[in-house]
Amino acid sequence: MGPRLVQAPTMLYPFPPLIGSSSHWGPIQTIAQLGRDAVIVTTASHGGLRVSLTALARMPEPLRQTAYSRDGWFEEDCDWALPYLALGLHAFEPNPARAEAVRAAATRTVQVCHAQHSGCWPPCSWNGPMAEPDQPAFGVAEATAVAPPSSQSSIADLRQRLMAHGAEALDEGETLQLILIRCLPRGADAASVADALIERFGDIGHVFGAPRTDLARVVGPDVAAELDLCQALLLRTLEHPLRQREVLSSWQAVKTYLRARLTAAPREAFHVLFLDKKNRLIADERLGAGTVDHAPVYPREVVRRALELSASAMLLAHNHPSGDPTPSAADIDMTRQVVAAAKALGIVVHDHFVVGGDEVASLRALGLM
Protein backbone atom coordinates (compact mmCIF):
# COMPACT_ATOMS: atom_id res chain seq x y z
CA MET A 1 0.00 0.00 0.00
CA GLY A 2 1.36 3.42 -0.94
CA PRO A 3 2.08 6.17 1.54
CA ARG A 4 -0.78 8.23 2.94
CA LEU A 5 -0.44 11.96 2.60
CA VAL A 6 -1.36 14.54 5.18
CA GLN A 7 -4.83 15.81 4.35
CA ALA A 8 -4.66 19.04 2.42
CA PRO A 9 -6.93 21.95 3.36
CA THR A 10 -10.37 21.67 1.80
CA MET A 11 -10.60 23.63 -1.43
CA LEU A 12 -12.42 23.41 -4.72
CA TYR A 13 -10.66 22.27 -7.87
CA PRO A 14 -12.15 22.79 -11.36
CA PHE A 15 -13.88 19.77 -12.86
CA PRO A 16 -12.93 18.16 -15.10
CA PRO A 17 -9.27 18.71 -14.20
CA LEU A 18 -6.61 19.41 -16.82
CA ILE A 19 -3.22 17.80 -17.34
CA GLY A 20 -0.73 19.84 -15.35
CA SER A 21 -3.36 21.21 -12.97
CA SER A 22 -3.12 20.75 -9.20
CA SER A 23 -4.41 17.81 -7.20
CA HIS A 24 -4.03 16.66 -3.60
CA TRP A 25 -1.08 14.55 -4.80
CA GLY A 26 0.73 17.03 -7.01
CA PRO A 27 0.43 18.06 -10.69
CA ILE A 28 -1.74 15.76 -12.82
CA GLN A 29 0.16 13.84 -15.51
CA THR A 30 -2.57 11.72 -17.12
CA ILE A 31 -6.37 11.80 -17.28
CA ALA A 32 -8.85 9.14 -18.47
CA GLN A 33 -12.56 9.98 -18.58
CA LEU A 34 -15.25 7.72 -17.04
CA GLY A 35 -18.48 9.34 -18.14
CA ARG A 36 -19.08 13.02 -17.62
CA ASP A 37 -18.77 13.00 -13.82
CA ALA A 38 -15.59 10.98 -13.14
CA VAL A 39 -11.97 10.80 -14.32
CA ILE A 40 -8.99 8.59 -13.50
CA VAL A 41 -5.91 10.72 -12.78
CA THR A 42 -2.27 9.97 -12.09
CA THR A 43 0.55 12.10 -10.71
CA ALA A 44 4.26 11.39 -10.25
CA SER A 45 3.62 9.56 -6.99
CA HIS A 46 -0.09 8.77 -6.79
CA GLY A 47 -3.29 8.18 -8.69
CA GLY A 48 -6.97 7.77 -8.10
CA LEU A 49 -10.45 8.84 -9.08
CA ARG A 50 -11.85 12.35 -9.17
CA VAL A 51 -15.63 12.80 -9.28
CA SER A 52 -17.66 15.97 -9.75
CA LEU A 53 -19.51 17.51 -6.81
CA THR A 54 -22.77 16.45 -8.48
CA ALA A 55 -21.67 12.81 -8.44
CA LEU A 56 -20.26 13.15 -4.93
CA ALA A 57 -23.67 14.28 -3.68
CA ARG A 58 -25.22 11.10 -5.15
CA MET A 59 -23.00 8.86 -3.03
CA PRO A 60 -24.63 7.59 0.19
CA GLU A 61 -23.11 8.34 3.55
CA PRO A 62 -20.59 7.31 4.79
CA LEU A 63 -19.03 6.25 1.48
CA ARG A 64 -18.13 9.81 0.51
CA GLN A 65 -16.28 10.52 3.76
CA THR A 66 -12.62 9.83 3.01
CA ALA A 67 -9.43 11.80 3.50
CA TYR A 68 -9.83 13.87 0.34
CA SER A 69 -13.41 13.23 -0.72
CA ARG A 70 -14.84 16.62 0.26
CA ASP A 71 -13.25 17.80 -2.99
CA GLY A 72 -14.22 14.62 -4.88
CA TRP A 73 -10.78 12.90 -4.79
CA PHE A 74 -10.48 9.17 -4.01
CA GLU A 75 -6.99 7.69 -3.61
CA GLU A 76 -5.76 4.74 -5.67
CA ASP A 77 -4.94 2.28 -2.87
CA CYS A 78 -8.41 1.66 -1.54
CA ASP A 79 -10.66 4.70 -1.74
CA TRP A 80 -11.11 4.54 -5.54
CA ALA A 81 -13.34 1.48 -5.16
CA LEU A 82 -16.00 3.43 -3.25
CA PRO A 83 -17.14 5.82 -6.01
CA TYR A 84 -16.48 3.17 -8.65
CA LEU A 85 -19.10 0.89 -7.09
CA ALA A 86 -21.46 3.42 -5.53
CA LEU A 87 -21.73 5.42 -8.77
CA GLY A 88 -21.70 2.43 -11.14
CA LEU A 89 -18.70 3.77 -13.04
CA HIS A 90 -18.13 0.39 -14.70
CA ALA A 91 -20.99 1.40 -17.02
CA PHE A 92 -18.62 3.86 -18.68
CA GLU A 93 -15.77 1.43 -19.35
CA PRO A 94 -15.39 1.04 -23.14
CA ASN A 95 -14.57 -2.68 -22.89
CA PRO A 96 -17.24 -4.92 -21.23
CA ALA A 97 -14.65 -7.49 -20.11
CA ARG A 98 -12.56 -4.78 -18.48
CA ALA A 99 -15.69 -3.29 -16.90
CA GLU A 100 -16.54 -6.59 -15.20
CA ALA A 101 -12.94 -7.20 -14.13
CA VAL A 102 -12.54 -3.76 -12.60
CA ARG A 103 -15.96 -3.94 -10.91
CA ALA A 104 -14.96 -7.27 -9.33
CA ALA A 105 -11.62 -5.83 -8.25
CA ALA A 106 -13.38 -2.83 -6.70
CA THR A 107 -15.73 -5.13 -4.78
CA ARG A 108 -12.80 -7.14 -3.43
CA THR A 109 -10.94 -3.95 -2.51
CA VAL A 110 -13.84 -2.59 -0.46
CA GLN A 111 -14.33 -5.95 1.28
CA VAL A 112 -10.66 -6.18 2.20
CA CYS A 113 -10.63 -2.62 3.50
CA HIS A 114 -13.64 -3.41 5.68
CA ALA A 115 -12.35 -6.72 6.94
CA GLN A 116 -8.89 -5.43 7.85
CA HIS A 117 -10.02 -2.04 9.21
CA SER A 118 -7.23 -0.74 7.04
CA GLY A 119 -7.54 2.98 7.67
CA CYS A 120 -8.01 3.62 3.94
CA TRP A 121 -11.29 5.26 4.86
CA PRO A 122 -13.40 5.93 7.99
CA PRO A 123 -15.13 2.55 8.63
CA CYS A 124 -12.31 2.02 11.15
CA SER A 125 -14.02 4.74 13.22
CA TRP A 126 -17.58 4.08 12.05
CA ASN A 127 -20.06 2.05 14.12
CA GLY A 128 -22.21 0.99 11.16
CA PRO A 129 -22.37 -2.50 9.58
CA MET A 130 -19.17 -4.05 8.23
CA ALA A 131 -18.96 -6.05 5.02
CA GLU A 132 -18.97 -9.83 5.16
CA PRO A 133 -16.86 -11.87 2.67
CA ASP A 134 -19.73 -12.21 0.15
CA GLN A 135 -21.48 -8.94 0.94
CA PRO A 136 -20.75 -5.60 -0.75
CA ALA A 137 -20.02 -2.49 1.28
CA PHE A 138 -22.81 -0.43 2.82
CA GLY A 139 -24.73 1.46 0.13
CA VAL A 140 -23.17 -0.35 -2.81
CA ALA A 141 -26.12 -2.70 -3.27
CA GLU A 142 -28.25 0.31 -4.25
CA ALA A 143 -25.68 1.58 -6.77
CA THR A 144 -26.80 2.67 -10.21
CA ALA A 145 -24.79 4.14 -13.06
CA VAL A 146 -24.39 7.89 -13.00
CA ALA A 147 -26.72 9.49 -15.50
CA PRO A 148 -24.99 12.35 -17.32
CA PRO A 149 -26.59 15.62 -16.21
CA SER A 150 -28.71 17.54 -18.64
CA SER A 151 -26.87 20.14 -20.66
CA GLN A 152 -26.33 23.42 -18.85
CA SER A 153 -26.56 26.87 -20.32
CA SER A 154 -23.27 28.71 -20.30
CA ILE A 155 -22.75 31.42 -17.75
CA ALA A 156 -22.64 33.96 -20.57
CA ASP A 157 -26.05 32.82 -21.80
CA LEU A 158 -27.49 33.01 -18.29
CA ARG A 159 -26.17 36.53 -17.80
CA GLN A 160 -27.57 37.60 -21.15
CA ARG A 161 -30.99 36.21 -20.22
CA LEU A 162 -30.79 37.93 -16.82
CA MET A 163 -30.04 41.28 -18.42
CA ALA A 164 -32.74 40.91 -21.08
CA HIS A 165 -35.60 39.47 -19.05
CA GLY A 166 -34.73 39.79 -15.35
CA ALA A 167 -34.22 37.19 -12.62
CA GLU A 168 -37.70 35.71 -13.17
CA ALA A 169 -36.42 34.25 -16.46
CA LEU A 170 -34.03 31.96 -14.53
CA ASP A 171 -34.92 28.76 -12.70
CA GLU A 172 -33.54 27.91 -9.25
CA GLY A 173 -30.45 26.12 -10.50
CA GLU A 174 -29.57 28.87 -12.96
CA THR A 175 -30.03 31.56 -10.32
CA LEU A 176 -27.75 29.64 -7.98
CA GLN A 177 -25.14 29.28 -10.72
CA LEU A 178 -24.93 33.04 -11.21
CA ILE A 179 -24.47 33.53 -7.47
CA LEU A 180 -21.87 30.78 -7.21
CA ILE A 181 -19.76 32.00 -10.12
CA ARG A 182 -18.96 35.11 -8.06
CA CYS A 183 -17.40 33.13 -5.22
CA LEU A 184 -16.09 29.89 -6.77
CA PRO A 185 -12.41 29.54 -7.68
CA ARG A 186 -11.60 30.53 -11.25
CA GLY A 187 -12.45 27.71 -13.67
CA ALA A 188 -14.77 25.83 -11.28
CA ASP A 189 -17.94 24.34 -12.79
CA ALA A 190 -20.76 26.43 -11.30
CA ALA A 191 -23.42 24.16 -12.85
CA SER A 192 -22.04 21.06 -11.11
CA VAL A 193 -21.76 22.86 -7.79
CA ALA A 194 -25.32 24.18 -8.09
CA ASP A 195 -26.59 20.68 -8.94
CA ALA A 196 -24.75 19.22 -5.93
CA LEU A 197 -26.24 21.79 -3.56
CA ILE A 198 -29.80 21.37 -4.78
CA GLU A 199 -29.48 17.59 -4.80
CA ARG A 200 -28.22 17.63 -1.20
CA PHE A 201 -30.63 20.22 0.24
CA GLY A 202 -33.67 19.99 -2.03
CA ASP A 203 -34.25 23.52 -3.32
CA ILE A 204 -32.67 26.96 -3.33
CA GLY A 205 -34.50 28.00 -0.15
CA HIS A 206 -33.05 25.10 1.78
CA VAL A 207 -29.61 25.77 0.28
CA PHE A 208 -29.52 29.31 1.65
CA GLY A 209 -31.17 28.28 4.91
CA ALA A 210 -28.80 25.37 5.56
CA PRO A 211 -26.28 25.64 8.41
CA ARG A 212 -22.90 26.87 7.29
CA THR A 213 -21.20 23.67 8.46
CA ASP A 214 -23.52 21.56 6.29
CA LEU A 215 -22.86 23.78 3.27
CA ALA A 216 -19.11 23.49 3.83
CA ARG A 217 -19.30 19.69 3.42
CA VAL A 218 -20.46 20.23 -0.15
CA VAL A 219 -18.67 23.37 -1.33
CA GLY A 220 -15.88 23.99 1.18
CA PRO A 221 -15.69 26.64 3.92
CA ASP A 222 -15.00 29.68 1.72
CA VAL A 223 -18.00 29.27 -0.58
CA ALA A 224 -20.16 28.26 2.40
CA ALA A 225 -19.31 31.57 4.06
CA GLU A 226 -20.40 33.46 0.93
CA LEU A 227 -23.73 31.60 0.78
CA ASP A 228 -24.23 32.24 4.49
CA LEU A 229 -23.71 35.94 3.80
CA CYS A 230 -26.49 35.84 1.19
CA GLN A 231 -28.83 34.30 3.75
CA ALA A 232 -27.89 36.95 6.31
CA LEU A 233 -28.67 39.69 3.77
CA LEU A 234 -32.07 38.14 3.04
CA LEU A 235 -32.94 37.94 6.75
CA ARG A 236 -31.91 41.54 7.37
CA THR A 237 -34.05 42.65 4.44
CA LEU A 238 -37.09 40.78 5.80
CA GLU A 239 -36.37 41.95 9.34
CA HIS A 240 -36.19 45.65 8.42
CA PRO A 241 -39.96 46.33 8.18
CA LEU A 242 -40.51 44.54 11.49
CA ARG A 243 -38.26 47.12 13.15
CA GLN A 244 -39.93 50.08 11.44
CA ARG A 245 -43.62 49.43 12.10
CA GLU A 246 -45.93 47.62 14.48
CA VAL A 247 -45.45 43.89 14.05
CA LEU A 248 -49.10 43.14 14.82
CA SER A 249 -50.16 45.10 11.73
CA SER A 250 -48.46 42.65 9.35
CA TRP A 251 -48.66 39.01 10.33
CA GLN A 252 -47.75 38.01 6.78
CA ALA A 253 -44.41 39.84 7.05
CA VAL A 254 -43.74 38.03 10.32
CA LYS A 255 -44.54 34.63 8.80
CA THR A 256 -42.39 35.31 5.73
CA TYR A 257 -39.48 36.24 7.96
CA LEU A 258 -39.91 33.15 10.15
CA ARG A 259 -40.06 30.84 7.13
CA ALA A 260 -36.78 32.28 5.85
CA ARG A 261 -35.25 31.95 9.30
CA LEU A 262 -36.41 28.49 10.33
CA THR A 263 -37.71 26.35 7.43
CA ALA A 264 -34.35 24.83 6.46
CA ALA A 265 -33.02 24.29 9.99
CA PRO A 266 -32.21 20.55 10.35
CA ARG A 267 -32.93 20.54 14.10
CA GLU A 268 -35.53 22.22 16.26
CA ALA A 269 -34.65 25.79 17.23
CA PHE A 270 -36.65 28.05 19.55
CA HIS A 271 -36.63 31.78 18.79
CA VAL A 272 -38.12 34.76 20.59
CA LEU A 273 -38.95 38.02 18.85
CA PHE A 274 -38.73 40.70 21.55
CA LEU A 275 -40.97 43.75 20.96
CA ASP A 276 -41.03 47.28 22.39
CA LYS A 277 -44.07 49.22 23.66
CA LYS A 278 -45.11 49.97 20.07
CA ASN A 279 -44.77 46.28 19.15
CA ARG A 280 -41.73 46.94 16.96
CA LEU A 281 -38.96 44.38 16.81
CA ILE A 282 -36.09 44.88 19.27
CA ALA A 283 -34.30 41.60 18.64
CA ASP A 284 -34.75 38.07 17.35
CA GLU A 285 -32.76 35.63 19.48
CA ARG A 286 -32.40 31.86 19.54
CA LEU A 287 -32.95 30.72 23.11
CA GLY A 288 -33.08 26.99 22.55
CA ALA A 289 -31.66 24.43 20.14
CA GLY A 290 -32.05 20.69 20.22
CA THR A 291 -32.68 17.56 18.21
CA VAL A 292 -34.85 16.84 15.18
CA ASP A 293 -37.97 16.79 17.38
CA HIS A 294 -37.21 18.71 20.56
CA ALA A 295 -35.65 22.00 21.64
CA PRO A 296 -35.38 22.64 25.40
CA VAL A 297 -36.98 25.92 26.51
CA TYR A 298 -36.68 27.48 29.97
CA PRO A 299 -39.48 30.02 30.66
CA ARG A 300 -37.45 31.84 33.31
CA GLU A 301 -34.60 32.41 30.83
CA VAL A 302 -37.05 33.75 28.24
CA VAL A 303 -38.52 36.24 30.71
CA ARG A 304 -35.10 37.20 32.09
CA ARG A 305 -33.89 38.06 28.59
CA ALA A 306 -37.07 40.10 27.95
CA LEU A 307 -36.34 42.18 31.05
CA GLU A 308 -32.72 42.69 29.95
CA LEU A 309 -33.93 44.07 26.60
CA SER A 310 -36.72 46.15 28.20
CA ALA A 311 -39.21 44.27 26.01
CA SER A 312 -42.91 44.83 26.58
CA ALA A 313 -44.10 41.90 24.46
CA MET A 314 -42.88 38.76 22.74
CA LEU A 315 -43.58 36.45 19.83
CA LEU A 316 -42.43 32.85 20.27
CA ALA A 317 -41.42 30.70 17.31
CA HIS A 318 -39.86 27.33 16.63
CA ASN A 319 -39.59 24.90 13.73
CA HIS A 320 -40.58 21.30 13.13
CA PRO A 321 -37.92 19.75 10.84
CA SER A 322 -40.44 17.03 9.95
CA GLY A 323 -42.32 19.61 7.88
CA ASP A 324 -45.56 19.26 9.88
CA PRO A 325 -46.39 22.56 11.66
CA THR A 326 -49.04 21.00 13.92
CA PRO A 327 -48.28 22.03 17.54
CA SER A 328 -47.51 19.12 19.85
CA ALA A 329 -48.78 18.71 23.39
CA ALA A 330 -45.31 19.68 24.61
CA ASP A 331 -45.43 22.85 22.46
CA ILE A 332 -48.77 23.86 23.99
CA ASP A 333 -47.63 23.16 27.55
CA MET A 334 -44.37 25.10 27.10
CA THR A 335 -46.26 28.05 25.62
CA ARG A 336 -48.58 28.23 28.60
CA GLN A 337 -45.62 28.17 30.98
CA VAL A 338 -43.93 31.07 29.18
CA VAL A 339 -47.20 33.04 29.04
CA ALA A 340 -47.71 32.58 32.80
CA ALA A 341 -44.12 33.56 33.67
CA ALA A 342 -44.29 36.64 31.43
CA LYS A 343 -47.71 37.75 32.65
CA ALA A 344 -46.44 37.88 36.24
CA LEU A 345 -44.00 40.61 35.13
CA GLY A 346 -46.37 42.50 32.85
CA ILE A 347 -44.96 41.14 29.58
CA VAL A 348 -47.39 40.05 26.86
CA VAL A 349 -46.92 36.96 24.68
CA HIS A 350 -48.87 37.73 21.52
CA ASP A 351 -48.48 34.38 19.77
CA HIS A 352 -46.41 31.24 19.27
CA PHE A 353 -45.69 30.26 15.67
CA VAL A 354 -44.63 26.78 14.53
CA VAL A 355 -42.82 26.60 11.18
CA GLY A 356 -43.05 23.34 9.28
CA GLY A 357 -41.96 23.26 5.65
CA ASP A 358 -43.65 26.19 3.91
CA GLU A 359 -46.47 26.37 6.46
CA VAL A 360 -46.65 28.45 9.64
CA ALA A 361 -49.15 27.53 12.36
CA SER A 362 -50.36 30.05 14.97
CA LEU A 363 -51.25 28.71 18.39
CA ARG A 364 -53.44 31.75 19.03
CA ALA A 365 -55.35 31.27 15.76
CA LEU A 366 -55.83 27.60 16.70
CA GLY A 367 -57.28 28.62 20.10
CA LEU A 368 -54.40 26.97 21.99
CA MET A 369 -53.32 30.04 24.00
Report on the structure:
This protein is of the alpha+beta class and 369 residues long. The chain folds into 3 domains: 113 residues, no CATH class; 79 residues, DNA polymerase, domain 1, CATH 1.10.150; 118 residues, Cytidine Deaminase, domain 2 (3-Layer(aba) Sandwich). Helices cover 38% and strands 14% of the residues. It is built from 12 helices and 9 strands. A 5-stranded mixed beta sheet has the order 6-5-7-8-9, sandwiched between helices. Strands 1-2-3-4 form a 4-stranded antiparallel beta sheet. Strand 7, helix 12 and strand 8 form a beta-alpha-beta unit. The radius of gyration is 25 Å and the shape is elongated. The chain starts with 29 loop residues before the first strand and ends in a 7-residue tail after the last strand. 37% of the residues are buried. The N terminus is likely disordered.
Walk me through the topology.
Elements: E1 30-33, E2 38-42, E3 47-51, H1 53-58, E4 73-75, H2 81-86, H3 96-116, H4 155-165, H5 172-180, H6 190-201, H7 204-209, H8 212-219, H9 221-244, H10 251-262, E5 269-275, E6 281-289, H11 299-308, E7 313-319, H12 329-343, E8 348-356, E9 359-362
Helix pairs in contact: 5-6, 8-9, 9-10, 11-12
Give a quick summary of the entry.
With 369 residues, this protein is of the alpha+beta class. It is 38% helix and 14% strand.
CATH class of the largest domain: Alpha Beta
Number of helices: 12
Hey, roughly how much beta strand do the residues contain? 5-15%
CATH H-level superfamily of the largest domain = Cytidine Deaminase, domain 2
Q: Major β-sheet, in short?
A: 5 strands, mixed
What is the CATH-assigned architecture of the largest domain? 3-Layer(aba) Sandwich
Distance between the termini: 66 Å
Number of domains: 3
Rg over alpha carbons: 25 Å
Q: Report the structural category.
A: alpha+beta
Mean pLDDT: 76
Shape: elongated
Q: Percentage of helical residues?
A: 25-40%
CATH topology of the largest domain: Cytidine Deaminase, domain 2
Q: H/E series, N to C?
A: EEEHEHHHHHHHHHEEHEHEE
Give me the count of strands. 9
- Strand order in the sheet with the most strands: 6-5-7-8-9
